[in-house]
Every structure is written in C-alpha cells, then in structure tokens.
Design brief:
Elements: H1 7-24, H2 32-45, E1 74-83, E2 92-93, E3 98-104, E4 106-111, E5 115-120, E6 124-126, E7 133-136, E8 143-152, E9 159-160
Antiparallel strand pairs: 1-8, 2-9, 3-6, 3-8, 4-5, 4-7
Length: 161
C-alpha cells in the first residue's frame, strides 16, 4: 500500500494542503475586483477565502510520477527559506516529495542534465525527487520560499552532494 492509499495519510495531506493555502494567503491570477468580491463574500459567510494554488498534481517539475516513500512513519516539516541576492542552495537532491511555493521573487533551479527552470512569485511546484539540482537567486532582490517536506522516518528530506 502506498502512502496516499491510506485514509489517514490522505487526511494528513489534505489538512496540510489546506494549511498551506491559508498560511500563504495565496491568490492566483484573479483580478483585484474578483478578489474584493470574494473577500466580502468570505467575510459575509464567516468562512475562509480560498484560491487554488496546486490541484491534484501527480508529477514533479521534471515529469516524474509522484511517489511517497513506503514502509516508514510519515513526517511532514516546513520552513520559509530566504535567499539573499546571489545565494544558492548548493548541489543537492530530495529523497521524498517536496512542495515549494514561491512567496517572493524568482528562483532559478538548474537540474542535472542542464535543465534550467525559473519559478516566480506565486509558483507552486512539486520538486524533482532523486535528481541533483541547485537553486539560486540570480536577481537583485530577496527570494522567499515556503518549503514543505513530505518525508518519512529514516528518509532524508535533502541530501547535500
């Protein structure tokens, strides 16, 4: 049985996804008039406003099928990473799924094989698993990322190379 086939895992993942939406206050490319009307409707009903950021994504940024490590207790951790201009992650890889939401700025990620991708503010991605890459702030402004590791006991979230 994979992680996502168990009911408790699906519930954990759904709660985590909802929390990310609420914490980041994400909004997609809605116009400000739409946001205003949605905000007043949300206030009128007493329910939180929600803007879809990532929906049922089943592949990483490199088109790998999303698979969760099996056989271990699930562990979820998150952090907000801030990159000063010129800062980089250093070459690394992930052994478990990793969700990233770009809160501010643009991060450039270079993957093994020379694939380069730029992710700008508002981008929501599932990072490549098992593929060496380096993230770098090539701009003159800070970059802020919300990073959510969907790991498991005994599985490294990040492996420095």
């Amino acid at each position: 049985m994979t992680f996502f086939q168990s009911r408790s895992a699906r519930s954990l993942f759904a709660a985590m996804a909802f929390s990310i939406l609420v914490i980041t206050g994400c909004s997609s490319t809605s116009s400000s008039s739409t946001q205003s009307s949605t905000t007043s409707t949300a206030a009128d009903t007493g329910k939180p406003q929600s803007s879809l950021v990532l929906d049922k994504q089943a592949q990483t940024v490199l088109d790998q099928l999303l698979q969760y490590p099996g056989g271990s207790q699930a562990q979820v951790s998150s952090a907000v990473l801030t990159f000063a201009p010129g800062a980089s992650t250093g070459l690394h890889k992930h052994e478990a799924p990793l969700y990233v939401y770009v809160l501010e700025g643009t991060i450039t990620v270079t993957y093994d094989g020379g694939i380069v991708k730029n992710f700008s503010e508002g981008s929501a991605i599932l990072e490549a698993v098992g593929i060496a890459h380096n993230g770098e702030n090539k701009t003159d402004k800070p970059v802020k990322l919300l990073v959510v590791n969907m790991g498991a006991a005994g599985v490294a979230n990040t492996v420095t190379l």
